[in-house]
Amino acid sequence: MPALPREEVAHLARLARIDMPDAELDHLADQLTAIVDAVASVTGAVAAAERATGEPVPATSHPVPLTNVTRPDVVHGVLTAADALAAAPEAEDDKFRVPRILGEDA
Description:
The structure is a single chain. This protein is mainly alpha-helical. It has a domain at 6-53. The chain has helices spanning 6-15, 22-53, 81-86; strands at 91-92, 95-96. It has a two-stranded antiparallel sheet with strand order 1-2. The radius of gyration is 29 Å and the shape is flat. The relative contact order is 0.07. Heterotrimer of A, B and C subunits. This is Aspartyl/glutamyl-tRNA(Asn/Gln) amidotransferase subunit C. Keywords: ATP-binding, Ligase, Nucleotide-binding, Protein biosynthesis, Transferase. GO terms for molecular function: asparaginyl-tRNA synthase (glutamine-hydrolyzing) activity; ATP binding; glutaminyl-tRNA synthase (glutamine-hydrolyzing) activity; transferase activity.
């Protein structure tokens, strides 16, 4: 595929609200052309596979199926307030005491 025209790259930059110097426009045009060529190559491979099998190739987001690895929720011993506050540097009224970070008028 021929390189994307500089005007199209400049237009894309304007749409994305990116201020881009002329030198970067040329560099980005080459990179965007490589990306468009890669997508065309994948599209061509999908079309060839569909012609060969006669079946549509399903779209996928990952090459390998994803599984969520979780463990069952099991309730264990509950941490009491006294246990939690035992390691605190300062406590007051069964709460952690921390330094003030906001001014008086907050």
